[in-house]
Amino acid sequence: MTRLRINQMANKYLNHDMISLHTELPEFPDGRISLLYTVLSHQPGAASQKELLSLVTSLVQMGLDTHDLVDNKPSSAKSGLLGMRAQQLKVLAGDYFSSRFYHLLSQAGQIDMIRHLSEAVCNINRIKMNLYGKMKQMKLNADEYLHYGAELKSGLFLSFTGFMSGLYERLWPELVERFSRCEVLLQELHKIENSNSLNDSWGVWHIMQEGTEEDRQTVVNHGEDSNILNNMVKKYEIADKLGSLLQQSTDQLQAVLQRLQSDKLIRELQPLIEPFLQATGQHRTTALKELG
């Protein structure tokens, strides 16, 4: 009910004919939005605004994520008119989604929330610049990659700490950060399933950190070759390592949930953790089959 409601409200802005025809959009941040909506439902001072706050946050996040899809690397395959139009529309779509949150919050008189989310966007952009700088200089390690990823996913949602009261105010930042870390790890596991998206993945940075000098040079010189990267990922057992990290992070997330001291809220949040539990279960099953 919650997810359907927020998705329906957001689709009013996301399903634009021009955007749908000429470019793709990132995945809707369903998990984090549902997390925000559900916890706000239990805050007396914010419950009445939970739909509006969840909607505008989803639009800002979609704006940021759409801008991340813009490919600034020159490519003959993308240099045609259609490719150029798709790139331009990603920029315009991201701007459009972001602008909607100003309009909706100003209409509702939520001026302070405009300031909080705007400051969060500035901080997220600063984090991105630091991340891209380290990646370009090849000074990033796997742990930092994971940390940056969780920071970028949690940035907007940490803005709502002030809306929480008592115990929730203390636990909200940890809850969001743990949840975001699980989302990053699940995303990285999905990259392994799609071998064409291994470049700039956790696995690559792990190899750059732990691999032999020969393998590190192979990644640097042939990082665009999906077959080579796929072989490297298998050699260094990246899927197993990610599965273990996700299991650990999911356990930590569940421990935070148990500290919420509300059985009702815990029950409502439990479905949001199921994708992480299923992924770790599938990972263990696959690992056992390989051992057998």
Describe what this molecule looks like in 3D.
It is a single chain. This protein has 292 residues and is an all-alpha fold. It has two domains: 1-109, no CATH class; 111-292, no CATH class. 76% of the residues lie in helices and 0% in strands. It contains 13 helices and no strands. The longest helix is centred in the last third of the chain and has 29 residues, at 263-291. It is globular and about 60 Å long. The N and C termini lie far apart (42 Å). The model is unreliable at 74-78 and 286-292 (pLDDT under 50).
Would you report the number of β strands? 0
Strand content: under 5%
Class by helix and strand content? mainly alpha
Anisotropy-based shape: globular
Oligomerization category of the chains in this entry: single chain
Overall mean pLDDT: 88
Residue stretches low in confidence (pLDDT < 50, at least 5 long) are 74-78, 286-292
Protein name: Heptaprenyl diphosphate synthase
Organism: Cohnella abietis
Pfam families: HEPPP_synt_1
InterPro entries: HEPPP_synth_su1
Summarize this entry quickly.
By secondary structure, the protein is mainly alpha-helical. The chain has 13 helices and no strands. It has two domains: 1-109, no CATH class; 111-292, no CATH class.
